[in-house]
Design brief:
nine-stranded antiparallel sheet, globular
Length: about 650
C-alpha cells in the first residue's frame, strides 16, 4: 500500500474515532429522578408527576403503560412530565426516550405510598422488634415495596444524591433492616385497602425536628419556638457559598455564648488565652472516661484539648487538619482563629482552612469537645491525626496533647446550622427534597426525643408539615404523629417533665392541624430503654389513625383525647372525645396519674371514670389546670373499650 494511502486511511480512522468520542461525550440519555426506579410504587388516583434530566432542549417521550406524553427538557436539562391518575394495579414499565436513547424503569406498581420519617424509633429495624425473627420470616410480599433513603446532609435543596436508592419488594432479606413501625403499619393498611403499598423510610436516629423543616418554613418560626433559626437559615446559605466565612461567623456566636456563660472578657477565652487554664497530659488518645482521672470521668460533658506543632516556613494556599474521630461536638481553633466545627458520635473530623492562619515556627491548636451521651473525647487513632499544609509533608499530631476539664455546667452551646442532627433544614434538603414532587397517601412521623427540654414543638411540627405538603403538592396531606413513649424512672410525686411537654405539644399540633392524628405510645414503652421493642402494637395504632385520616374509616383516629376540663360542684370534670365504648380504669379502683395544679404546684387527685368523662375530686385548694400522665415514664391505667390509652395532656379549667 502506498505510504500516502496508509496515511490518508489513518487520518480518517482517527477523525472517525474522534467524532465518535465527541458524540459520546455530548450524548445524554434521559435520566429519571429519584424515587422512580425499578419496583417503585406510584400513588393511585393522583396525577403522576415524573421528573429527571436530559440533554437541554431535547424532546422526550414519556410512556407509562398505555399512557404517553411529550415534554421538552429545559435549558438546564431538567424535565417534568404529568400523567393522568391511575387506579391501583400493575406491573407497568416506564420509558423515557430522547434523541440519545431510552431510560426505563420496570415492575412499577400503582397503589398507596407512605413516607415514614423521624429519629431512631422510626428507624428501629424489624429484626429487633418484639418477635422480630417471626416478623422477618413472614415479611415476604411482592406487593409491598420498600425504599430506604440514605443518611445525608444537604446544604441546599438541589444537591444531587451521590447514589440512587433502590426500591425492593418486601422479603425477609429486605425487610430485616427496614423500619419496623413503617413496614408493620403498611402491612396492616394493605390488608384493609387491598392495594399495593410503597413504604419510604427517611429517618436518622438522634435528630431533632429542626433539620427536617424546609428553610422557607424554618425562617418563619417564632423565636419562642426556635430561637435564632431565621439567622441560622442565612448562615447555612452562607456556608453553602463560603465555608470559611460561615465558620468565622458561627465562631463569633459561639464566643458570645461562651463569654455570656463564663464572664470571660474578649481575648481571655481559652482559645485566646489558654494559659489561664490548668492542663494535664492526655494519657492516651481515646475517650476521657478512660484517662484514670476522676475529675475527667465526672466532668459535665465538656473538655478542652491543646497541642502545639512547628512549621519550618509559612505555607501558602490551603491546609488540612485531621483530628481522627471525635465524640461528639468539636470546635477547633488554630492560633486563635476558628477553622472548623462539626457533630458526630465518633466520626472523623477533617477541616480545610486557609494556610494564612499558620505561621513559621510554633503554632497552637485548641479544641473544645462537648459530649451529651455516654463517653466523649478525641478518640483517634493517633496515627490519623495530622496537619498538612498545601504541597508540604504532613505534620503528625498524635502525641503531645493536653486536656483541661470544664467543671461548669454550661448548658447547650449554639449548634452549627450545617450539621445533621441539630442543624437547620439539612435533612430536609438531603433526605426529603430529593423525593421530588411525588404524590403520597400520607406521612408517619415518629420523633421528639431529641427535642425534650425545648418548648415549641407544636410550632415546629406545624412548620414541618407546611413545607412537606408544599413539596408533595397536597395541602391536606395526612400526617400521623407518634407521641413519645414512656422512658425513664417512674415519678413518685408531681413534677416537671420535658417528655410530657413534648407529648402535649405533639397532641396539640395534631389537634389544630385538621389533617393529622396523634398516636399515643405512653403505655407501650420501656422505662429502661429509649428504643421500645413493641413496635407491633404501635403499628396497629398507626394503621388505625391512617385508616381514619387517609382512608375515611368511621373510627376514632387516636383513642381518648381530652376535650375540656370544667369545674362542677367543687370537683373537676374532664371530658374526652374519641372514646370507644366507655373509659375504664384497669388494675385500680379509679384512674391514676391525674393532677390538680395551681401556679407552680401540682398534686395528685382521686379520680373516677364514667362513660367519656373523668371526675377529679376537689380538695378545697386552688386549682386552675389539670395534668394527666405528666412524667417521663408515667404509670397509666385509663383506657377505652378498644384498649387505647388516654393521651397525656395539660388543660386549663373552664368556668363552673
Amino acid at each position: 500500500m502506498p505510504p500516502f494511502v496508509a496515511r490518508r486511511r489513518s487520518y480518517w480512522a482517527l477523525a472517525a474515532a474522534a467524532s465518535i468520542l465527541a458524540t459520546a461525550a455530548t450524548a445524554q440519555v434521559p435520566q429519571i429522578a429519584t424515587p422512580m426506579g425499578d419496583h417503585a410504587v406510584l400513588q393511585r388516583d393522583r396525577p403522576i408527576i415524573l421528573t429527571g434530566t436530559a440533554k437541554p432542549g431535547d424532546r422526550l417521550t414519556v410512556t407509562l403503560g398505555t399512557q404517553s406524553t411529550r415534554v421538552r427538557a429545559a435549558a438546564d436539562g431538567k424535565w417534568q412530565a404529568k400523567l393522568a391518575p391511575q387506579p391501583a394495579g400493575g406491573p407497568y414499565r416506564l420509558d423515557v426516550t430522547g434523541s440519545d436513547g431510552t431510560t426505563s424503569a420496570s415492575d412499577l406498581m400503582v397503589g398507596d405510598v407512605w413516607l415514614c420519617s423521624g429519629q431512631s424509633n422510626m428507624e428501629y429495624p424489624l429484626k429487633a422488634a418484639l418477635n422480630g425473627q417471626s416478623l422477618v420470616d413472614t415479611a415476604a410480599d411482592p406487593d409491598i415495596r420498600l425504599l430506604s433513603m440514605p443518611h445525608r446532609v444537604g446544604l441546599t435543596v438541589d444537591a444531587p444524591l451521590p447514589d440512587r436508592p433502590a426500591w425492593q419488594a418486601a422479603t425477609p432479606a429486605s425487610a430485616a433492616d427496614f423500619s419496623a413501625a413503617c413496614l408493620l403499619m403498611v402491612k396492616a393498611l394493605k390488608a384493609e385497602a387491598k392495594v399495593p403499598m410503597g413504604a419510604i423510610d427517611s429517618s436518622w436516629g438522634g435528630t431533632r425536628i429542626r433539620p427536617w423543616i424546609a428553610a422557607e418554613d424554618a425562617r418563619k418560626l417564632p423565636a419562642a419556638a426556635s430561637p435564632g433559626t431565621a439567622s441560622d437559615v442565612d448562615l447555612l446559605a452562607l456556608y453553602a457559598r463560603d465555608k470559611t466565612a460561615a465558620i468565622r461567623q458561627y465562631a463569633a456566636q459561639w464566643g458570645e455564648w461562651w463569654r455570656g456563660k463564663t464572664g470571660d472578657a474578649s481575648g481571655a477565652e481559652p482559645w485566646n488565652a489558654p494559659d489561664k487554664r490548668a492542663w494535664k497530659p492526655v494519657p492516651k488518645i481515646g475517650v476521657w472516661q478512660e484517662y484514670g482521672d476522676p475529675q475527667a470521668a465526672g466532668s459535665g460533658g465538656h473538655m478542652w484539648f491543646r497541642n502545639r506543632f512547628d512549621l519550618a516556613s509559612t505555607p501558602s494556599g490551603d491546609a488540612v487538619i485531621d483530628l481522627g474521630k471525635v465524640d461528639e461536638i468539636d470546635m477547633v481553633w488554630i492560633n486563635g482563629v476558628a477553622i472548623g466545627s462539626s457533630f458526630g458520635w465518633g466520626s472523623p473530623r477533617s477541616y480545610t482552612f486557609p494556610a494564612s492562619v499558620l505561621r513559621q515556627g510554633s503554632n497552637e491548636i485548641i479544641v473544645s469537645v462537648a459530649d451529651s451521651w455516654q463517653t466523649g473525647g478525641m478518640i483517634g487513632p493517633a496515627e490519623s491525626m495530622r496537619i498538612t499544609p498545601d504541597g508540604a509533608a504532613p505534620v503528625p499530631l498524635g502525641t503531645g496533647w493536653r486536656y483541661s476539664v470544664e467543671t461548669a455546667d454550661l448548658g447547650r452551646a449554639p449548634r452549627m446550622p450545617w450539621e445533621s442532627h441539630a442543624g437547620v433544614s439539612t435533612l430536609y434538603n438531603g433526605m426529603i427534597a430529593p423525593l421530588g414532587p411525588i404524590a403520597l397517601k400520607g406521612v408517619a412521623w415518629y420523633q421528639g426525643e431529641s427535642d425534650t427540654g425545648m418548648p415549641g414543638y407544636d410550632a415546629r411540627m406545624a412548620a414541618l408539615m407546611a413545607g412537606w405538603r408544599r413539596q408533595f403538592a397536597d395541602p391536606a396531606l395526612p400526617f400521623i404523629i407518634v407521641g413519645l413513649a414512656n422512658f425513664g424512672s417512674p415519678a413518685t410525686a408531681p413534677g416537671e417533665s420535658g417528655w410530657a411537654v413534648v407529648r402535649d405539644e405533639q397532641r396539640r399540633a395534631a389537634l389544630v392541624d385538621g389533617h393529622a392524628a396523634i398516636v399515643t405510645a405512653v403505655d407501650i414503652g420501656e422505662p429502661t430503654d429509649i428504643h421500645p421493642a413493641n413496635k407491633n402494637d404501635l403499628a396497629k395504632r398507626m394503621a388505625q389513625a391512617a385508616s381514619v385520616i387517609a382512608y375515611g374509616a368511621n373510627l376514632p383516629a387516636s383513642g381518648p383525647l381530652p376535650l375540656r376540663a370544667q369545674r362542677m360542684v367543687g370537683d373537676i370534670v374532664v371530658t374526652f372525645e374519641g372514646v370507644t365504648g366507655a373509659l375504664t380504669a384497669v388494675s385500680a379502683a379509679g384512674p391514676i396519674g391525674f393532677e390538680l395544679c395551681a401556679a407552680t404546684r401540682c398534686r395528685y387527685a382521686e379520680a373516677r371514670a364514667d362513660s367519656s368523662t373523668v371526675r377529679l375530686e376537689g380538695d378545697g385548694q386552688p386549682v386552675d389546670r389539670v395534668r394527666y400522665a405528666w412524667a417521663d415514664a408515667p404509670v397509666v391505667n385509663l383506657i377505652d373499650a378498644a384498649g387505647l390509652p388516654a393521651a397525656p395532656f395539660a388543660l386549663p379549667i373552664s368556668g363552673d
